[in-house]
Amino acid sequence: MAIQRGGIQVIVIHAFITIDAAKREKFLEISKLIIKNSQAEEGNISYQLYEEADQPNSFVMLEEWKDLAAIQFHGETDHFKNFMDETSEMLVEPLRAERYEIARKL
């Protein structure tokens, strides 16, 4: 269970993704779809992709969710499943995800 913040449960996920340089453009194209569709989900607060400044083709997806139910719903969506399927062959190392429960925003 997430920690309450102003009556809203907040869970943050950092998904670290390192891809094959030759597949960069396709990855970015696929990423635009999951970002757009995920941001439209009711339980999503924010969903953004950033690239490491000193490590080309190393990205982090920053996600903020209202609660665990929202994350579970997200994991069952077609856009999430398609993203995972389509990017699996692009990875140069396994995707690593870290989940945080946020008590408050400073």
Automatic annotation (TrEMBL):
GO terms for molecular function: monooxygenase activity. Gene3D superfamilies: 3.30.70.100. InterPro entries: ABM_dom, AI-2_Isomerase_LsrG, Dimeric_a/b-barrel. Residues 11-102 form the ABM domain. Pfam families: ABM. The keyword Oxidoreductase applies. It comes from the Bacteria. SUPFAM superfamilies: Dimeric alpha+beta barrel (SSF54909). Keywords: Monooxygenase, Oxidoreductase. The keyword Oxidoreductase applies. PROSITE patterns: ABM. PANTHER family: ABM DOMAIN-CONTAINING PROTEIN (PTHR33336:SF3), QUINOL MONOOXYGENASE YGIN-RELATED (PTHR33336). This is Antibiotic biosynthesis monooxygenase. It comes from Bacillus canaveralius. The lineage of its organism: Bacteria, Bacillati, Bacillota, Bacilli, Bacillales.
